[in-house]
Amino acid sequence: MQNIKPYKRPRRTAVELTSLLDLLFVMIFVSLMQQKTTSQAPEPVAKTPVKVKVVTTEAPKPKPTKYSVTATFNFYGTEQNVNIPKGSYVMQGSFDEKTRELKLGGVGWLERPQNYDMVPLSGKINESENIFTGRIEFIGCKTFTLKRVTNLSGSPISGDWKGSYDCSQGMTGLTLSVE
To answer: How many Cβ atoms are within 10 Å of 90's Cβ, its own excluded?
Structure first.
């Protein structure tokens, strides 16, 4: 019996395989170039002028939802309570358009009657932006209601608001001028 050895294919080295791949790429490239040069170029199309209207628009600036507010708090007597003296002071605070909340605190007297203190206002303005109601967080004070009587440019609530508030001195007239 004869000892038959199976055929072994000689192993190719990495250099030989790389050379074969390079040759294959060159052949594909040449083939593509020949196809490109033999294909006919498309017939030229007559050019017609096209009118282009360029419209530029600016993106709308986001509208603020919170506003810094400065106001003047003017108080005075009413028909039910004529003995209230006149007084006024400056207030500062913020209005949140989403929640409709307006919060104001006193920052300085313009005209201070004896034995009177500044009171903070905190409440909500209705959707129509013409009624402001809330509570006065001060000892002896309760609620206030104001109705808008004039509009001014500025924040959505700028203008004059007129009404009254109830504190220990009794029902007191109030005009709030919001800038």
So the answer is: 17
